[in-house]
Amino acid sequence: MGKYFGTDGFRGEANEVLTVEHAFKVGRFLGWYYGQDHKAKVVIGKDTRRSSYMFEYALAAGITASGANAYLLHVTTTPSVSYVTRTDDFDCGIMISASHNPFYDNGIKIISGKGHKIEAEVEEKIEAYIDGEMEELPLAKKEDIGLTVDYAAGRNRYIGYLISLATRSFKDMRVGLDCSNGSAFAIAKSVYDALGAKTYVINCEPDGTNINTNCGSTHIGVLQQYVKEKKLDVGFAYDGDADRCIAVDEHGNVVDGDLILYICGKYMKETGRLNGDTIVTTIMSNLGLYKACDKAGLKYEKTAVGDKYVYENMVRNNFSLGGEQSGHIIFSKHATTGDGILTSLMVMEVMLEKKMTLSKLAEPVKIYPQLLKNVRVADKKTARENPEVTKAVDAVAQALGDDGRILVRESGTEPVIRVMVEAATDELCEKYVSQVTDVIKAEGLMVG
After folding, report:
1. In Å, how far are 47, 246, 247 from 274, measured between CA atoms?
2. Which pLDDT tens digit goes with each residue over 281-319?
3. Of 51, 66, 80, 99, which residue is the catalytic one?
């Protein structure tokens, strides 16, 4: 990770960590970098945070000041920016979003012309420019100054693309959608209505400050209750920029990214569409997923946490399905990044083609109890490598043996250490997580 760019872009509290000056300079650099030998085109999307409008204008100002043209998708999803960037021949795309973070945070995600996250070396050059470590870039003059273009049509084409991927009508299916008061509000219902579903939508009235607030994929309990109350066939919850999806079955039970990987992976294997009969997971996936995969003849790979690493593995090995427990799922035939709405459509396909409820499809996976605690620390690396902390982690790993596991890692987007334990019971999870977090506290590494 760089000074500003983490595993998921440049992210932090708006006008505190990430400022309009940063956004302007990012725009300046990208407009210049991609426009050295032609008139560059950069497409921009944003989520519903109040600060997204401010950053949109700052980025557009920087891009056009460097002589490139800025195309505005307005409020849209991260995967739609990826889709438009790669299909409409843009030099790069920008998504303004802090994904599942609170409304007061924001972020700048840069997408390459091929539709995936930008190369690390380009991020390093942007950071050098922000910090004044390279000479000032030339300003465009006269007719060379760039244009800002309304490009809402690109978002509409993406909606059409999603609709085209459905293999059959959703008629008579009662589907609940939790749009997290975020980007999905402008897209998801349109797709499901067009496919004939009886669509029930909640958290679809963004006001700039309610994105991800007690709703969406990070607060799934709201949708669970809604599905049960309305007696729906299935529910899908997206996060703020709709690159994640968590499902809820007809009984109100959570079907997370691990279960979605199993359900879709098994179906794709049966239909001859799972390259290498392999799914790509991260080290955070549940032990129960792997045990179920073994029984179903599904192979799996494990990567570092982050859909960026999942996608890199998929490209390197030509795999067709990968993702994270958090609901970032990548179907490489259709997309180059996690796409929450696409994921929900693929789950619908399995349910309809196999004529099975979501609970029945998920039944073979026996999820191990898992507890994840985020510990806010002054320095992530120092905390993770502290000898006493390391000793405590090793002791827990030895105690768990083959009946569970512990994972301690640095967050890529926040100043926290994530301590995760899987074990046979919730009590054991709590016991072993506490053993490690108590040591972190005792060593004076915890803040707040």
Report:
1. 33, 21, 22
2. 998 899 999 999 999 999 999 999 888 899 999 999 999
3. 99
Token pair, residue 169, equals 């009508």
Q: How far apart are CA 312 and CA 145, in angstroms?
A: 36
Q: At what angle do helices 50-65 and 20-34 cross, to 10 degrees?
A: 40
* CB-count burial class (<10 Å; 0-12, 13-18, 19+) for 16: exposed
108 neighbors 20 (Cβ within 8 angstroms) = no
Residue with tokens 């998708």: 73
Read off the pLDDT of residues 324-381 as tens digits, 9 standing for 90 and up: 999 999 999 999 999 999 999 999 999 999 999 999 999 999 999 989 999 999 999 9
Distance of alpha carbon 73 from alpha carbon 165, whole angstroms = 22
Residue 383 tokens, joined:
């905390």
- Mention every residue, 6+ apart, whose C-beta is less than 8 A from residue 275: 318, 319, 320
Please measure the distance between the N-terminal and C-terminal CA atoms of the chain and give it in whole angstroms. Answer: 24
What Rg do the C-alpha atoms of the chain give, in angstroms? 22
State the burial class of residue 142 (Cβ atoms within 10 Å of its Cβ: 0-12, 13-18, 19+).
exposed
Q: How far is CA 17 from CA 55, 70, 125, 418, 433, in A?
A: 13, 24, 19, 22, 30
Torsion angle, alpha carbons of 325, 330, 331, 332, to 10: -140
Cα torsion angle, 233, 234, 235, 241, sign: negative
pTM: 0.89
Nearest one of 203, 210, 243 to 109, comparing CA atoms: 243
Helix runs in 88-187, H state only: 120-130, 152-165
Between β-strands 370-376 and 321-323, what pairing exists: parallel, antiparallel or unpaired?
unpaired
Q: pLDDT tens for residues 404-439?
A: 999 999 887 788 999 999 998 999 999 999 999 999
Tell me what pLDDT residue 1 has.
Answer: 55
| Residue 99: active-site member | yes
